[in-house]
Amino acid sequence: REPSFLRALLTTFGPYFLIGSFYKLIQDLLSFVNPQLLSILIQFVSNRSAPAWWGFLVAGLMFGCSIIQTLILHQHFQYVFVTGIRLRAGITGVIYRKALVITNSAKRSSTLGEIVNLMSVDAQRFTDLVNFLNMLWSAPMQIILAIYFLWQNLGPSVLAGVALMILLIPLNGAIAMKTRAFQVEQMGYKDSRIKLMSEILSGIKVLKLYAWELSFSQMIEKIRQGELQVLRKMAFLNAVSTFTWFSAPFLVSLITFAVYVSVDDKNILDAQKAFVSLSLFNILKFPLNALPQVISILTQTSVSLKRIQHFLNHEELDPQRLEMRIGFFSAHASQLTLDSWFSLLPTSLNLQVPKGSLVAIVGPVGCGKTSLISALLGEMEKLEGKVAVKGSVAYVPQQAWIQNATLQDNVLFGQPMDQKRYQGILEACALLTDLDVLPGGDQTEIGEKGINLSGGQRQRVSLARAVYSDADIFLLDDPLSAVDSHVAKHIFDHVIGPGGVLGGKTRILVTHGVSFLSQADLIIVLGDGRVSEAGSFSALLQQEGAFAEFLRNYVPDDDNFQEEDSATGISLYTNAICLRIPLSLVSYGLLSHLLLTATLESAVTPFLALQVKLSVFWAYAKAVGLCISVTVCFLYTCQSAAAIGANIWLSDWTNEPVINGTQSNTSLRLGVYAALGILQGIFVMMSSFTLAIGGIQAARTLHNNLLANKMHSPQFFYDTTPSGRILNRFSKDIYVIDEVIPPTILMLLGTFFNSASTLVVIMSSTPLFVVVILPLAGLYIFVQRFYAATSRQLKRLESVSRSPIYSHFSETVTGASVIRAYRRSQDFMAISDAKVDANQKSCYPNIISNRWLGIRVEFVGNCVVFFAALFAVIGRQSLNPGLVGLSVSYALQVTLSLNWMVRMASDLENNIVAVERVREYSETKTEAPWVIEGSRPPPDWPHQGEVEFVNYSVRYREGLELVLKNLSLRVKGGEKVGIVGRTGAGKSSMTLCLFRILEAAQGEILIDGVNIASIGLHDLRSMLTIIPQDPVLFSGTLRMNLDPFGKYSDEEMWQALELSSLHKFVGSQPQGLDFECSEGGENLSVGQRQLVCLARALLRKSRILVLDEATAAIDLETDGLIQATIRSQFEGCTVLTIAHRLNTIMDYTRVLVLDKGTIAEFDSPTNLIMARGIFYGMAKDAGLA
Q1: Residue 402 and residue 373 in contact, taking contact as beta carbons nearer than 8 Å
Q2: SUPFAM superfamilies recorded for this chain (predicted)?
């Protein structure tokens, strides 16, 4: 039997929920008392001789009954809403726990965005459903009772009205079904839009460097187009359903009265019958409308239930996947696969690793080195054999996973602090120099994904975390690739090597660096998922196998394998202190402080807040279109007029004198009544439709502005703003603008005109009522303002405490393997639960504030009923029964209207914030224009490829220090220049300046004599080519990743793939160029992704090529391939390379050595080595001098 998520929910939350249901039952029964009292009141007015106290008693009873009803109803709500937030917390928790144990193949079937959606959208659906769930039994009960009382009043004619109601139910059902189908379709669009958006945000730097923003924003717009299409269809349906539910009660009463009058001439429609029936029909109105709504929410929730259940049923990692074993660490004949369709993985291997040894794993790109490490962590699916690991494990992944916490927290990773050891490890991992530069030392808050650390720093923090964990086994997946050669040497000597901190531990090191292999106890050479050779360094050299061949190619001569004097490495270290300007990120502590002050301010300045609100409403009205806005209000006014007209006509009709037991001209009376009613329905339908069209118009405008602005935002905006926050604008806020604001406005206008017409009717029948209107209105407005202010701040607190849950969650999903390797799953669950609790703390007061509001507003409504009845009793001499019936039956329905009106007004105020937030992000500062029409470079620019920096300085952001100071240099066309220097010396910044990702603080850059600041960004960026540091791929076909604009032919693409030696891999895929890359290119190894970036560069063939540490994560063989390709294909081009391995640039024309943002040395490699300066020291470390 399949596990049922629903059953689990019922057993957990059912009992508490049932208490609420009991209160609901009592309240439903009480709601039928007032119509009976109204009937008595009308009798009293028509009977002149009745004693006055009799009338006052009835009025008092009406009031008392209403008050009791109010109190009980809110008790019910309290139970229901609390169940709702408990549900959400439970579901969030269970999804979080599941995400930590889900297998890789399962993770691939649902992307990060979808999983986060389960937590945010689908869990919320349950909360919404719970509030309505009781209607499932309460609505039918109310309907049956209402029909019973109507039967007593009007006899069998009621059946005509009931029949009509029953006929309307399937119609509403059909509309609900159709709406649901549209909703599913729209969810699909929304999912894919958010997924693409999150990829765009994570790869935004690459989009900018390649000038690809346009192509991607077109993709988003295309999805959005489809989404709005579906919204428009939903709007049509909604207009029809609004029409039916608005006209239903009226049509029902019309038909019932018509049948009643026509069946028998003796049936007289007097005030008592007409208005008691009307108030019963009004009670009927709510359950009839609620039923289809509940059913549609139920169907939506069932979709969510299926989605969550599907996710919870995903395969989990087998806890027995790894044997924890005493002895050594071995993998016996274990066949490992990562997804059955992965062709490149270890097919079958036998390997044993003795305790305390250092094992190096080498091999070409994509041969399964990382997969082997994953297998040892138990992250792969095991087909056969066994994997056994003794002791605890520490893991350093190839791409460092950094938490959004302080640097110290990242290193400690939940272990207790040991100051002496901590300092020692920071020194061994070469982090001390970086700490001097970070603004808060090791207390610096690190942004999402380690955004304010350089690649090398991230990798070293990740390594320090592993070392600090003091495990028994260390799995190091290429930790030395992201750092410079002398840093790598330092780390090897002080951490990984035989004399390092990890001396006696078992270490498995995947590496591409040849220089350290001589110190490994065992070297394993992988090829195509098999162990092609294994043995010690000397043994492998004598075997004359693939390994020896590999070494001969890459190592100039044997003597640099001797241990070098490591002193030079270190002295150089202290010379070139890292200079990197990190981005200080607002910590949550600061945020909550800001919020507190914000709350205090808003308490002081409600007036200012109101002004801000008005400007936002105005902005929204403009987005909707002023013409449409005015039309909607006009239509509503007409509708109210028609409704009042119909009811006054009815009261007039009931007062018609009875002659010989019948009333004259009944048919005329009926005709006019019907015409007015139908007119009212038509107005409603028109206004609903007009408003929906306006809402879609606004949604389109606001989304387009937001997207356009985000595509034009400068890079530093993305470095300082967590991507979750931007994504939230595109998901949550756009959703609110699409689907929440238009219906809210519709309801608000409806209730407002409803309440207004009630007051008009009561005042016209009992003018005395004017006296109480002012105090009641005063009380009402006070309650509304008080509530709106509180609720807004509570909502704000709620949403501020909500986003950490999701950002922590997406962080956990990306770092799941690291968390599991360190066995920290329990701690992370606790952190997540704490974040959920913090969020609940602001949800609960929100619920309570709603109860507070409800009781006070309903009190105002109950007063209206009381005074309407009271004045009817006082003025009974001058009133006829028809008018009394009219005014009191109107008063009875005002409570609901008033209540909804406050809620809708507050909802609108809270939700309109979404417009404000979207606008705020649509108006942030943009970078320079993409194309400047007046000054475009000549079409063949740059033809020489000459680059000149003139007295150039740059900083990351306003108010930070300069990263590059007064650089002046000139690179001739076709030169090959290597750029070297310690991490953070400004190497990457220099390339970013060429692309104007960073704008000059002073000075200029000339390319072929054109000042790059004078032309459009796309004109500049599309003419330069970069192979960036982190290879970024987008989910989609390989073709789209190479050429999103579709500029190149298939032949050109295959040629590029051939030159970047990917054609073998792509050719082996059945889809060829249409091979689907998964999110972030997960289904290619890092090396292959790097080759894809090379292929992109080959396609563009521009005169200037920038290589940014591109060869860091690649093994030497691929490295050779890339270098050879660049030498042959970019022969006449200017090449600027940021080098980590000096052997790649030894044959370049010149080498630029940067130090702290200034030029230290700039000359040909041979001259620099002769000069015995910084470069000589680096070359000596790398064994090249």
Answers
A1: no
A2: ABC transporter transmembrane region (SSF90123), P-loop containing nucleoside triphosphate hydrolases (SSF52540)
Give the number of residues written for the chain. Answer: 1185
Which positions ≥6 away from 170 have C-beta within 8 Å?
Answer: none
Structure tokens at 1175: 């470069």
Per-residue pLDDT tens over the stretch 416-467: 999 999 999 998 888 888 888 777 778 888 877 777 788 888 899 999 999 9
Band the pLDDT of 94: cuts 50, 70, 90.
very high
Placement of tokens 């009643």 in the chain = 260
The 10s digit of each residue's pLDDT in 958-967 is: 777 888 888 8
With beta carbons less than 8 A apart as the criterion, state whether 986 and 1160 touch.
Answer: no
Q: In sequence order, what are the beta bridge partners of 445?
A: 406
Question: Is the Cβ–Cβ distance between 687 and 636 less than 8 Å?
Answer: yes
Contact criterion met (CB below 8 Å) for 985 and 1155: yes
Q: Does domain 358-553 have CATH number 3.40.50.300?
A: yes
* The pLDDT of residue 230: 93
Strand duo 1036-1037 + 1076-1077: pairing: antiparallel
Residue 881: cis peptide before it, omega within 30 degrees of 0: no
Can you tell me the distance from the alpha carbon of 387 to that of 473, in angstroms, rounded to the nearest whole number?
14
How far, CA to CA in Å, does 423 sit from each of 65, 256, 418, 431, 982? 73, 87, 9, 10, 22
DSSP 554-571: H-S-GGGGSPP-THHHHH
Q: Is the dihedral of CA 502, 504, 507, 513 positive or negative?
A: positive
Q: Find out whether 1140 and 1111 touch, Cβ atoms under 8 Å.
A: yes
The C-alpha atoms of residue 666 and residue 688 are separated, in whole angstroms, by 33
CB 853 within 8 A of CB 787: yes
Q: What's the token pair of residue 583?
A: 């981005």
- As beta bridge partners, residue 1011 has 1006
> CA–CA separation, 639 vs 683, rounded Å?
6
E strand intervals along 924-1014: 947-955, 962-971, 976-980, 1000-1007, 1010-1011
The amino acid at 694? G
Q: Name the percent of the chain lying above pLDDT 70.
A: 91
Q: What angle do CA 710, 714, 718 make, to 5 degrees?
A: 70
Bridge-based pairing state of the strands 358-362 and 506-510: parallel
Residue 415 φ then ψ, to 5°? -85, 155
- DSSP per-residue string spanning 27-88: HHHHTTHHHHHHHHHHHHHH-TTS-HHHHHHHHHHHHHHHHHHHHHHHHHHHHHHHHHHHHH
In whole angstroms, what separates CA 239 from the centre of its chain? 30
Order of all β-strands in the sheet with 947-955 = 962-971, 947-955, 1000-1007, 1010-1011
List, as one string, the DSSP characters of 128-152.
HHHHHHTHHHHHHHHHHHHHHHHHH
Place of tokens 């240099």: 969
Statement: the pTM of the whole predicted model exceeds 0.85:
no
End-to-end CA distance of the chain: 70
According to DSSP, the β-strands at 349-353 and 329-337 are antiparallel
Name every residue whose Cβ is closer than 8 Å to that of residue 7 and which is 6 or more positions away in sequence.
none
| Cα dihedral value 410, 415, 419, 420, nearest 10 | -110
For 752-820, give the DSSP string.
HHHHHHHHHHHHHH-GGGHHHHHHHHHHHHHHHHHHHHHHHHHHHHHHHHHHHHHHHHHHHHHTHHHHH
Alpha-carbon distance of 1132 to 1150, in angstroms, equals 15
Cα torsion 433, 436, 440, 442: sign: positive
Q: Report yes or no: 294 and 135 within 8 Å, Cβ to Cβ.
A: yes
Locate the domains of the chain by residue range.
358-553
SS3 981: coil
d(CA 945, CA 974): 7
**Which letter does DSSP use for residue 879 in this model?**
-
